[in-house]
Amino acid sequence: MVHTGACIANLLGQGGSRKYHLTCNWLRYFKNDRDRRDLITCGCAAGVAAAFRAPVGGVLFALEEAASWWRSALLWRAFFTTAVVAVVLRTLIEFCRSGKCGLFGQGGLIMFDLSSTVATYSSPDLLAIILLGIIGGIFGGLFNFLLDKILRVYSIINERGAPSKILLTIIVSVITSMCSYGLPWLASCTQCPEDAVEQCPTVGRSGNYKNFQCPPGYYNGMASLFFNTNDDAIRNLFSTGTATEYHMSSLFIFFVAIYCLGLVTYGIAVPSGLFIPVILAGATYGRIVGTLLGSISNLDPGLFALLGAASFLGGTMRMTVSVCVILLELTNDLQMLPLVMLVLLISKTIADNFNKGVYDQIVVMKGLPYMEAHAEPYMRHLVAGDVVSGPLITFSGVEKVGDIVTALRITGHNGFPVVDEPPLTEVPELVGLVIRSHLLVLLKGKMFMKEPVKMSGSFVMERFGAFDFAKAGSGKGLKIEDLYFTDEEMQMYVDLHAIANTSPYTVVETMSLAKAALLFRELGLRHLLVVPKTP
């Protein structure tokens, strides 16, 4: 859902799609880096809000995990997005309650209602919760370690092409089916409780008591977990007043199966995530701990299941505030806030001693050039001038067409400094920064001169409109290979003053590298010019 929201936002941010005739003129106002980035952040927030029916949790997820650069305007935009999601979702849920949606049911993750419990807790309860947090941190660190190894193997398999991807997906699907159908045979039948609120054994596709090869009046606890949708399985584990519903052996086997299946399923060629498997595995071992510590703790095993899910989420994803709010919006139980906060902080602290969060690991594995929010310790002993790599390619304010074309062909750089030198100025002078896409638009217009003289900016803007320089969509932009120039044109000149950004961010070469890196990261820059201390 997060990925879907981001994809829709990216489509809007590049002006729609001409291929599918989904374009609107007003969308062109978003065709720049900052607005597209903001739209994608809002799309991520919308995805979480729709999946968990948690609008505030969606905003906090975008802030904590999706956005690398946050500002106040983005906060209310994300909040507005999730508010719209909440209203639309609520309307559709009311419509679906009339039975017109078939198997779609009530939409979103169904609310896990824990409001019937009274969450009063004592010192032994807190000790049990601290233990749960420690277990969550250890399991989360182990999960991330194993996932890292498995994904490296999967990437090798997936690189071999579509047949390998399909075969891997089929193998994992068969293993999943064998576990889901085979493991319930190991569980014994349990007699239906006399005070059961719902029908036992269950008739239909969801419910707490699946019959599965048991005689009438009996149910199979493990089948009740495996043969349900994940949403229903989580709700069954979170349910209160059902302390004796599941055997310990059933819960233990189910936890091992879900933990391992979650590891091998992530990374194959299907749209699956980590949130639900992690919640399901966490809820299972939470219920195990709650049952084992029943003699010293008065808390319901259903509450332990919720806290187990929180601890495993904190141990794998290392998110605190957003996960806390999502779980509170899911369960509709504000009394659990202190316990959820405590268990999340403990599990995150324990897991941080082993490795990074799962999303951070995947960013590193994919080789994405992501900068951490803090400077590395070694940066304090270096200055900005120590890490600039050369030779630097600069353009003069009035540059020969052939030199620009050659520079664009032999480099992959996105930005080039523009420096005026004599005879245009008395001493070398930094004019600004010009980016590749703008250079290509200017070259395509072929506004060339035979002599290197400076032109007025208004003359250039008469030929081009502002939207000619708008950021192109993914894969749609001009490329230097698309342009052709005659030998005569290659010897002509073009004025870059009109399209140069005359106020680029600059630092002096003697500035601390740690400060320069923080400036680059906090301002969300793509280019930072390092200028000499003396001319």
TrEMBL record:
Question: Where in the cell?
Answer: Membrane
The record gives the membrane topology as: Multi-pass membrane protein
Keyword field: CBS domain, Chloride, Chloride channel, Ion channel, Ion transport, Membrane, Repeat, Transmembrane, Transmembrane helix, Transport, Voltage-gated channel
GO cellular component annotations of the record: chloride channel complex; plant-type vacuole membrane
> Which molecular function terms from Gene Ontology are attached?
voltage-gated chloride channel activity
Q: Which residues form the CBS domain?
A: 391-444
The question of whether Transferase is a record keyword is answered with: no
Any one Pfam family here would be Voltage_CLC
The record lists the membrane-crossing segments as 39-63, 69-89, 101-121, 127-146, 166-187, 251-282, 303-328
Q: Which family does it belong to?
A: Belongs to the chloride channel (TC 2.A.49) family.
- How is this protein named in the record? CBS domain-containing protein
**Whose protein is this, by species?**
Triticum urartu
Per the UniProt record, the lineage of the source organism begins with: Eukaryota, Viridiplantae, Streptophyta, Embryophyta, Tracheophyta
* This protein's encoding gene: LOC125543082
